[in-house]
Amino acid sequence: FAMLVLEKELSAVYPEIDLVTTPEGNLVAMVHSNNCTSDYDAWIGLFGEAVKALGFSVPKYQLYDTLLGLALQGEPDGGGLLAYGYVSGEHITGFTEGRPLFARMPGSVFTLANFMRTQLFTSLGALHAGLRILLDKEAVKVDEIRGHGGFFKTQSVGQPIMAAATGIPVSVLETAGEGGAWGIALLAAYRARQSRGQSLSDYLNTQVFRGKTGSVCQPDPSDVAGFAAFFTRYMAGLPIEQAAVDHLRG
Fold first, then answer.
1. Closest CA to 157 of 72, 214, 79
2. Confidence of residue 76 (pLDDT cuts 50, 70, 90)
3. Contact 193, 232 (CB under 8 A)
4. What is the domain extent for residue 120?
5. How far is it, in rounded angstroms, from Cα 150 to Cα 59?
């Protein structure tokens, strides 16, 4: 999901956008997709089985780092490949059920690098569709996205892919691989350790993030154009996903 702190209220109600607040009461627009990394986790597990069948033993982290790292070597748009990681339904694109699938044209450039790039791109497809509402219809200006969670666990991969999908600089701290549970732990620490009258933002800035190292990834124009081409293909191919939902039954 993506959470953008707003400077003003939205002009309309959008079923795809949830309005929440920060713990301090600032208005936030949340784009919450149901699917992200689950399907490419399954693919990496399958590739791990192939490695094991060949008689090799590769640590899980190395398998992820190697395969996801290949995505950065793929063609900007993923070589014409298409995938949907819809393990479940996806309300942003109008699906109450999902069917993970992969498709390609006979002339698509079917390489492992392009396959992994497509898997990462499609994990952000529904999220991107929701963000377009905020960026295009509401003209929300975003200075920077701070990434955290499993998508950023493999260093130097999630960051440029997210920047390509959003066209926005993406920063990560050394704690980027941690997710929501870490955030809840921070809130608990604030409640237990705050100075009298200290705000949450001041506590985070002075006690948690002060001196922490991180990096900012600027969106690469070639990658942004590549994701845009992929997203056009993604939206055009949604009837394929619908056909899979209609005809693939357990």
1. 72
2. very high
3. no
4. 38-131+220-247
5. 17
Q: Is residue 196 part of a domain?
A: no
Cα torsion at 136, 137, 142, 148 (round to 10°)? -90
Match 């109450």 to its residue by tokens: 96
Reduced to 3 states (helix: H, G, I; strand: E, B; else coil), residue 13 is coil
| Stated pTM of the model | 0.89
| Both tokens assigned to 150 | 């499993």
Burial readout 206-234 (b: 16 or more C-beta within 10 A, e: otherwise): eeeeeeeeeeebebeeebbebbbbbbebb
- Residue 233 counted as domain residue: yes
Ranges of beta strands (E only) in the chain are 2-5, 17-21, 27-31, 82-84, 101-103, 145-146, 170-173, 214-217
Strand partners, 84: 101
The string of pLDDT tens digits covering residues 94-146 is: 999 999 999 999 999 999 999 999 999 999 999 999 999 999 999 999 999 98
Nearest-Å Rg of the Cα atoms of the chain is 19
Assigned domain for 74 exists = yes
Domain count of the chain?
1
Measured distance CA(220)–CA(167) in Å, rounded? 8
**Confidence band (pLDDT; 50, 70, 90) for 250?**
confident
**CA dist., res. 213 & res. 50, Å (int):** 37
Residue 84 lies in a domain: yes
Name beta bridge partners: 247.
none
